[in-house]
Write a structure and sequence with these properties.
The structure is a single chain. The protein is an all-alpha fold and about 270 residues long. The protein has one domain (about 1-274). Helices cover about 75% and strands about 5% of the residues. The protein contains 10 helices and 2 strands, in the order H-H-H-H-H-H-H-E-E-H-H-H. It has helices at about 1-25, 25-50, 55-75, 85-105, 110-130, 130-135, 145-170, 185-205, 210-240, 255-274, and strands at about 175, 180-185. It has a two-stranded antiparallel ribbon. Strand 1 and strand 2 form a beta hairpin.
Length: about 270
C-alpha cells in the first residue's frame, strides 16, 4: 500500500511538472526541455559507466544540451534568425568532444565518443524538437503553442495506461518477448484505442486540425512511442539493469518515464511536416 501511494504521488508530481512547464510560458518550456535532457543524458552516462573523469563527460553533455536546445527553441520561434548564429555554439561543443579525447588518455576513446553521440541522437535532439512542436507553423496556424506538446503527452500516457489495464486483463499474446516479456498485443491494441479516443476529444477541443489528422497523429505517437519504450528496454537489458535510475520513487529513472517521448516527438514532427 505504501509503495502504491509513493508511486501515485510521484506520478502526479511528474505530470504536474510536465504540464505546468509546457503551458505556463515559452521560457518555462525551454527550461523543462533542458531539465529533462540534462537528467536523461547524465543518467545515460551513469548507466553506461564510461571510463575517465565523469564530471568532464557530464559537463560536455550539459553544454550540448543547453546549446542545442536553445538553438532549436530560438530558431523555432524566430524563423528569420541566422541558422549559423544559433547553432555555432553547439558545433563548437561537438568539436570539444573530440579535443577532450586527446587529453583524456582513455583506453577506448571511440566508446566514449559513441556514448556522447548516442546522447545527442537519442536524447538531446528528440527533446529539443518539442520546441518545433510548440512554435513552428507545421501547417497548423491559429493554435496555442502548448497544444501539440500537451496532446502528445496525453496520447503517450493514455496509450501506456490503456496498454497496462487491457494487457493485465486480456493479455495473452506476447508483443516482443525477447526484450519486454510483459507487453502483449492485446495491451497494445487497448492502448491504441485509448489514444484514438483522446484524438477525437482533441479534434473537438482544438479544431485547428481536422479529426483525421488528429487520429493520424495519435497513431504515430502510439507506434513510435511503443518502439521508444522497447528501445529503452533493449538498452537496459543489454546493461543488465531493471531501471535506468531511482530519481522517481516507484517509477525508476527519468529515462524510464520519457522513453516513449524520445521516439514519439521526432515522429510527430515528421508527420506534421508531411
Amino acid at each position: 500500500m505504501k509503495q502504491l501511494l509513493i508511486r501515485t504521488l510521484t506520478g502526479v508530481a511528474y505530470v504536474a511538472v510536465l504540464v505546468f512547464g509546457t503551458v505556463s510560458h515559452p521560457w518555462a518550456l525551454l527550461a523543462l526541455i533542458v531539465l529533462l535532457a540534462l537528467l536523461a543524458v547524465w543518467e545515460l552516462a551513469r548507466i553506461c559507466s564510461s571510463e575517465g573523469k565523469p564530471w568532464v563527460t557530464r559537463l560536455l553533455l550539459a553544454l550540448s544540451v543547453v546549446t542545442f536546445a536553445v538553438a532549436v527553441w530560438l530558431k523555432s520561434q524566430y524563423t528569420d534568425i541566422s541558422l549559423h548564429l544559433v547553432f555555432a555554439p553547439y558545433l563548437l561543443v561537438v568539436l570539444l568532444f573530440f579535443v577532450n579525447e586527446l587529453y583524456a588518455r582513455r583506453t577506448n576513446p571511440i566508446a566514449h565518443l559513441g556514448l556522447l553521440a548516442l546522447a545527442q541522437v537519442y536524447i538531446v535532439l528528440p527533446l529539443s524538437l518539442l520546441s518545433v512542436l510548440a512554435f513552428a507553423p507545421l501547417s497548423v496556424p491559429g493554435r496555442s503553442f502548448w497544444a501539440l506538446p500537451l496532446a502528445l503527452y496525453f496520447f503517450i500516457w493514455l496509450n501506456d495506461t490503456g496498454a497496462y489495464l487491457i494487457g493485465s486483463w486480456l493479455g495473452r499474446h506476447k508483443l516482443f518477448p525477447r526484450i519486454s516479456p510483459g507487453k502483449t498485443w492485446e495491451g497494445s491494441i487497448g492502448g491504441a484505442v485509448s489514444a484514438l479516443l483522446a484524438a477525437v476529444l482533441m479534434a473537438y477541443l482544438f479544431p485547428f486540425m481536422n479529426l483525421w489528422r488528429w487520429l493520424g497523429l495519435a497513431m504515430v505517437v502510439v507506434v513510435f512511442g511503443t518502439w521508444g519504450d522497447l528501445t529503452e528496454s533493449l538498452i537496459k537489458r543489454s546493461l543488465g539493469i531493471k531501471d535506468s535510475g531511482n530519481l522517481l520513487p516507484g517509477h525508476g529513472g527519468i529515462l524510464d518515464r520519457i522513453d516513449s517521448m524520445l521516439f514519439a516527438v521526432p515522429a510527430a514532427v515528421v508527420y506534421l511536416c508531411i
